[in-house]
# Entry
Amino acid sequence: MNFNICEIKDRNKELIKQLVGIWEASVRSTHLFLSDDEILKIKEYVPEAIKGVQYLAVAKSENNLPLAFMSVNGNKLEMIFVSWNMIGCGIGRTLFEYGIKKYNINTLTVNEQNLQALEFYKHFGFKVFKRTELDEQSKPYPLLYMNI
# Structure
């Protein structure tokens, strides 16, 4: 699969819509602990989260369509989501490696129940340094704080 990674400054409405679509499809395939209602509630905040982040990197296909995206504030990974049909194709790994090199990502937070993501980050040498019983919305989804 050929794709290129570019940093996005202009976060226009169409791009946000495409990225929210990637976010939702990815969450539905990886966050099996969330109900449909919870996903829809969280989805309301995703556009602002994408617009407000310091760095936004998008992996795009040869046809200029987004395949995955990553957002970073300072040295902290905020989000990384891969189109559900591209999971396992190396796009997420390449995008994350790009973020480590370009933005010096050294900290992140992951849902404890998202075992696939947890193992992914451990593969890069990230280790858990803190755990909370509740997520940032005070829901009963433990969060793991990781750093390298």
User: Anything to note?
Assistant: The helical segments are 13-30, 36-43, 46-52, 91-103, 115-123. The longest strand covers residues 66-73.
